[in-house]
Fold:
Amino acid sequence: MQKIVVLTGAGISAESGLKTFRDSGGLWEGHDVTQVATPEAWARDRTLVLEFYNQRRKQALEVKPNPGHLALAELESKFEVSIVTQNIDALHEKAGSSKVLHLHGEISKVRSTEDPNLVYELDGWELKEGDKCDKGSQLRPHIVWFGEAVPMMEPAIQEVMSADIFIVAGTSLVVYPAASLIDFVRSEAPKFIVDPKIPEVTVGNNFYLYEEPASTGLPKIKDQLIQEYL
Ligand code: BV8
Structure:
């Protein structure tokens, strides 16, 4: 069975109603995301960071997958499909994708500030000051902040290197090391990208370009793959 590996970003969740980083000019309620999603912000203003993620968690719990997520889930009936997402929402899982690697963490999870191996599913949307792990330390979002290492990068590279077919959907390829994953695709693997604003770095890099939203582009790619690669 041919293996498809898909790298997704905030753009695939845009039509489900979740703002992308670039859309809002990288701002949330006037705050620069790269200044709020950091260990320094957590040390300086924990309440602001808790509120930032509580608001996004509340939203993420309410939204539904769109035809882009669903097309990727449907491909599992004909191909082995492995999703590497930069997103912290659970829309791929809600759409039915069974193999999802979250490079930057998951909004529904929280972890101990004392022992990073103590990870919990948060019940509901709100994580509060004083919510503690079993060892008595404050819980934090189980998210990779800017300036923090990306522990899932090695497994993600292995996935991309094993791809027979590679798809990029809804990412500006600005954030590293995630963006460097496109350099690990085998030269013989066909590459597809779907984005209304195709990132510069992929132009002339022999990607099949689908300059349109994921909700229409991914169903088209799905049909093309079934026609040409089965
Ligand atoms: C690290 C969790 C070292 C948080 C995230 C200068 C140059 C280069 C790199 C750096 C630099 N300065 C610092 C760095 C490193 C930094 C980085 O890359 N910064 C960027 C801002 C330049 N990276 C890091 O800090 C990483 N860590 O380097 O650590 C280290 C090593 C060892 C030991 C210690 C330390 C950690 C990065 C992870 C940060 N966390 N997420 C949270 O979400 O709150 S990243 C966050 O931003 C998201 O997860 C996502 O990954 C990223 C946003 O990217 P996209 O998903 O691509 O979203 P974006 O809005 O940019 O693009 C959307 C795309 O969709 C667009 O192309 C748009 O056209 C398209 N679109 C819109 N609508 C649709 C659509 N597509 C399809 N359909 C549609 N309908």
Notes: The mean pLDDT is 96. The helical segments are 33-36, 39-44, 46-62, 67-74, 91-95, 153-161, 214-228.
